[in-house]
Amino acid sequence: MAASSKVAYVFPGQGSQKVGMGADIYATYPSARAVFEEVDDTLGFPLSRLCFEGPEEELVKTVNVQPAVLTVSIACLKAAQDASGNNLPTPALVAGHSLGEYTALVAAGVLSLSDAVHLVRERGRLMQEASSKRPGGMLAIIGLNEKTILGICLEADTRVSNINSPGQIVISGAEDNLAQAKRLAEAKGVRRVIPLKVSGAFHSHLMEPAVDGLTAAVSGFTFQKPSVPLVANVTGEVLTDAKAIKQELIDQLLNCVQWQRSIENMTAAGITTLFEIGPGQVLTGLIKRISPGAQVFNICDAETVSKTGTESVIFCIGVRY
Hints:
The radius of gyration is 19 Å and the shape is globular.
């Protein structure tokens, strides 16, 4: 692979899914097909068919969508490596948004694909179970600053759960509390309030029933030292130690995803080009708002995979001055 000190790979989380994702790369690239087949064998049921054909109401269930998004993301990565003639620039850093952090661990060699799929399916099951015990939801708040939103959360007993980009912050809480937070945000002149299509109040105290189970699940797998440092969701800082990464996965369950800080820290460390690898283009949009000067490539389907050969060669020439 072509080496570059200025590249990062980032991986999307829950919410990027859609029925049909991965079908075209499965049909086009044997390496992607092998990823789906390994996951189907690992889980003992055709997750690939759920990705390709739905039904949507089954795909979006937390227990299914988490391994599904991870699988499609790794399939996109393997396909892109093939399409580029194994010339996709090697990352200096990896990161993922929430669930995507587990995908990043596969890319960095911390977890095997099979282990990661088992772990995120259990994570999804535990989060779904926690949501039934302590119901809630999530709202994206567009157009208010962090200080104002923190004040709203304090008054409405909600939590900031994602700081995604300037002007886009997500909060979590019980439905009644979210309704109060929405009213308070409207009184502050919010541009938009968008309910997220998720089954619970993720990255908040309402996920506490899942902590013991996830701790036990994480401790049951072997974590290798990462071949590429991970930028952590909770702090936005670089992690290179397997023990610290395990703790990050537990902490992430209850704490805010600091995505804006993560990207700012990457660019401060010299990252100039980011590859969003996986379904959708959510992170690409966020990165462009956080770091307008960064170069972002999106790899999400057969069409974008097919472009990686040309784009990566041009980019590699550009960084070898």
